[in-house]
Write a structure and sequence with these properties.
The protein is built from two helices and ten strands. The chain has one domain: Metal Binding Protein, Guanine Nucleotide Exchange Factor, Chain A (Beta Complex). With about 140 residues, the chain is mainly β. Helix content is about 10%, strand content about 35%.
């Protein structure tokens, strides 16, 4: 049985970028092995865009995509450099979603973090429903 959604606050290191999001962390988090996620040691939770609210000015954010036409946009604080979330679209995962870095959620204890369920995605091979053969490094 899924836990009810809880509203979490999130922020970068310097606190210039803040957001809130309705998340069911017990439903699971994810780690991926695609070329981007492996570099940034991605540990994420996926939510629908309507469950996310940016509380600070969007002008504080930097934006990165593999190309200027990329539908997946990775957003980070322009001041301290902390990557906060991505705006993504994958038909295989239901269309538009927000991918929030678990590490930027405020007020979660180490004990809570290690207890979170984790699903692994083989993004390197666009296989979103299978774990890669090796996951220990993720």
């Amino acid at each position: 049985m899924a836990m009810p959604l809880k509203t979490y606050q999130g922020s970068c290191h310097c606190q210039k970028v803040r957001f809130q999001a309705d998340i069911d962390l017990e439903a699971g988090t994810g780690k991926c092995n695609c070329s981007f996620c492996i570099k940034v040691r991605d540990w994420i939770v996926l939510i629908k865009p309507e469950a996310f609210q940016l509380l600070s000015d969007a002008s504080e954010l930097g934006d990165y995509g593999f190309t200027s036409q990329s539908v997946n946009r990775h957003l980070f604080c322009q001041h301290c450099g902390v990557r906060l979330y991505s705006k993504c679209h994958l038909p295989e995962l239901g269309g538009d979603f927000i991918s929030i870095m678990v590490s930027v959620l405020d007020g979660i204890s180490d004990e809570q973090l290690v207890a979170l369920p984790v699903q692994f995605f083989d993004g390197r091979h666009d296989n979103w429903f299978e774990a890669p053969k090796v996951t220990a490094h993720l």
